[in-house]
Amino acid sequence: MDWLTREPPSEVDVCGEAVPIRTGWRRAVRSYVLMGTRSRIPIGDCDKLLSSWFSRDGVVPRTVLGHQREALDAALSWRDDALVEAMPYGDGMSRRATVRVFDWEADSGIVVADFLRLYGIDLTDRATQMHWWRFALLWRGAAASESLVASAISARSPLDGDVDKWSRRAHERLAGAWALPPTQAELVQRAREAW
């Protein structure tokens, strides 16, 4: 993405047709919250999200209504591509985290604090509107800086390679301090193990 001379995308391809998508950052974050740690959004929330992303004056385009699964997939890809395109650095070969290191709902407070401190943007102000892709760029910038988001992600990420025991203990203390609340699935698993 060329951030200096191009506008971020505001349309998605649904079965070969370019369909305008509503680009506000709150919609994208809401979809992450609805998904939680699942790979798919619950069926009951699909209609709400399709309406949220595609309706104009209460009308959802025919293409979206006729191809709901494809429209939802296009919207989710558009949402996720923003985080990839924001800062496309690296060789793509790095290990992916096997543990949760960030949660949009649980970490919402530190995102608000970082945006206010780093950019002077108050995300709690309902008048604060911006394109999701611009928001993703700023969020990635916060995650790569000296920020609360970066501190939390670093503390939750597994240590690489051989680390001395003092560094490992320090990391474990930070991981405990920044631990995410357990998901519903984790609570169920703990309950099963307790039996």
Please give the oligomerization state of what you see.
Answer: single chain
N→C terminal distance: 51 Å
Are there runs of 5+ residues with pLDDT below 50, and where?
none
What does the main sheet amount to? Answer: 2 strands, antiparallel
Verbal overview:
By secondary structure, the chain is mainly α. It is built from 9 helices and 2 strands; from the N terminus they run E-E-H-H-H-H-H-H-H-H-H. It has a two-stranded antiparallel ribbon. A hairpin with a 2-residue loop joins strand 1 (11-14) and strand 2 (17-20). The chain is globular.
Key features of this structure:
4% strand, 195 residues, 2 strands, mainly alpha, two-stranded antiparallel ribbon
Summarize the structure.
The protein is mainly alpha-helical and about 200 residues long.
Secondary structure layout:
Elements: E1 11-14, E2 17-20, H1 25-35, H2 43-54, H3 62-66, H4 68-86, H5 108-119, H6 132-143, H7 148-156, H8 165-177, H9 184-194
Antiparallel strand pairs: 1-2
